[in-house]
Amino acid sequence: MGFLILSLPSLAFGQFNKGIGTFKDQAGHSVRRTKVDPGFIAAGQDGLSVFGAMEASIVKTKPDGTPQWSMVYGGIGNEKFNSIREIYQHDAVAFDGYAVLGTTTSFASTEDLYFVRTDLSGTPLYSFTFGRREGNERGHCLQYIKDYATGKLGYIMAGQADSYTYFGDSTDILIVKTDESGGLTGAKVIGGYGEDIAYWVEQTSDGEFVVTGSTTSTPGASRDIFVIRLDKNLNIVWQTIFLNREVFSEDVGYSLTENPLDGSFTVTGFTRSFGLNYSQDAFLLNLQPNGSVNWMRTYGTKQPEQGASIDLSSGGKEYVVAGFAVDSTGDKDAWVFKTDMAGNPIWSNLYRASSDSTELAAEITNDGGSGYVFTGKVESPLFTTNEDYYLVNLDFNGKTGACEKEFTRAWKKHEPSTYSDFQAVDVKDIRVVCTQYEKADYVARKCFDRGSLGVVAPQTVPTDVMSVSPNPTSTSIKVLFQDVATKEDGGTIVVFDRNGKIVYKGAVTSDEMQIPVENLPIDVYMVRFTTRDGKQYQKKFIKK
Asked: Residue 158, Cα to own-chain centre: how many angstroms?
């Protein structure tokens, strides 16, 4: 169950439509309105290559969407954040902050689920990974939860795992539960003989959990939507897979919400087996508290559409859904639509940040009183090969003031068949890791405003100011500084491993340095040069 954040009347949370980023690729995957430091917090990924090829990132904005601070996180591999939540239910503000979930390749040779807890400034307090070293694990959805029996707070995470072979050699559902300090309190691998992935988990009003995603553990060559209910100890209460037995195609559940008015669960995602002429359409699937089907509706045209996130409005009397839609010209736009409690359409809009942009709405949430906010990605207006965070705040009628247009779509009722075949096994592969972080200079542009995005380079970027050779090496590395002005400034140089541990540190006093590495374990390392004025440059090398 997500925590709704109350609005503060003294602050102006007006509507806006903005792209936020730098001269490299960024994408927003999750957004929430913040209570302690009012504004919005969004998380996603960044191509600045500060530590590795791609970093996870967080952007904090003011109530009007202006960037307040931004940070990138990770190590020498690839990271991205898929889900962020504000952590604010504390007596002392020092414990408030944010929790984020995603994936990383920096702390093992494979991909792991990646969790980071920060303070209100974005500085990491602790972080951990989950997964075995021989396979890949990914985290897709995070919720801040409460044990109703004890009152203790903690986290529930949903994703996927390739490392475990209890049900075959394919991907399984991964559910991880921790206390507020990151201590593991339970974890399950759930699945069948096919590929099973959890994209969303929600705490129910009675303290249990409900999960949705996609599965191929069904009869026929199809991918189908599943919903599973778990008790507070992560044991399966009920499970249902929804399929069209006449058409074997692809259906995925990306998000769900519990309605407090009737206890039902409503799922959104995309469907091809129930779509208009079997094209890709968004859908709403409403279930009774026991998992039985109340109703299913699809929404779309003959072009592809997708629902990515769902939230409640008007106390449960309405649903608001965000995703994307391909319009009549073939362009992909962010798409938000609203329905009543029975799935009947109320309004439907497409959103664009410029006349030639490509958008995707990844997550939407009730913004706490004035409307809805969603994030995703949008083509940058100045660098057309790059993408920015897309951050849009709507009123309750889906309006931003200038950047939306109505989108006419058909809708249709369906009656899916059901199936179930999941099993569950306990796992406990959690590891504490050290997350690196750096500030990043994000700026914003308004809708249709190509002049408001300044070309601001971040302080930390890869460069040819220095070179490292030989690479790979078994004995030592030679570091050459090729920019005279930089050499004369001096500074420090450090070498650190994939866990962020410094294994060498020294002062830069000449244009060439020899650093011994023969005693280091075989692995990948990073060399970082920091000038006296704070600029940073870095290179990777392999110790063989």
From this structure: 12
Phi, psi of 412 (to 5 degrees): -150, 145
Residue that finishes a domain, picked among 415, 447, 480: 415
Number of domains the chain contains? 2
Least confident of 102-116, 192-206, 326-340, 461-475: 461-475
Look at 77 and 331; give whichever has higher pLDDT: 77
SS3 for 89? coil
- The bridge status of strand 196-203 relative to strand 184-191 is unpaired
Q: Identify the sign of the CA torsion 453, 31, 105, 226.
A: negative
Contact 386, 373 (CB under 8 A): no
What 8-state DSSP symbol labels residue 243? E
Count Cβ atoms within 10 A of the Cβ of residue 507 and give its class: 0-12 exposed, 13-18 middle, 19 or more buried: exposed
Whether residue 343 sits in one domain with residue 263: yes
φ/ψ (deg, to 5) at 484 = -60, -45
Query: Mean pLDDT over residues 161-177, rounded?
Result: 89
Give the domain range for residue 347: 257-415
Question: Are 472 and 535 contained in the same domain?
Answer: yes
Please indicate, yes or no, if residue 470 is contained in any of the structural domains: yes
What is d(CA 274, CA 297) in angstroms, rounded to the nearest whole number?
Answer: 9
Question: Of 121, 119, 137, 144, which is closest to residue 2 (Cα–Cα)?
Answer: 144
Whole-angstrom distance, CA of residue 217 vs CA of residue 200: 18
Report how far apart, in Å, the C-alpha atoms of 330 and of each of 143, 213, 356, 358 are.
Answer: 36, 28, 11, 10
CA distance 289 to 284: 16
Sheet holding 112-119, edge to edge: 79-87, 97-104, 112-119, 124-130, 430-433
Which one, of 298, 311, 301, lies nearest residue 271 by Cα? 298
Q: What is the pLDDT of residue 406?
A: 74
Phi, psi values for residue 276, rounded to 5°: -65, 115
Q: Which CATH number belongs to the domain containing residue 528 in this structure?
A: 2.60.40.3080
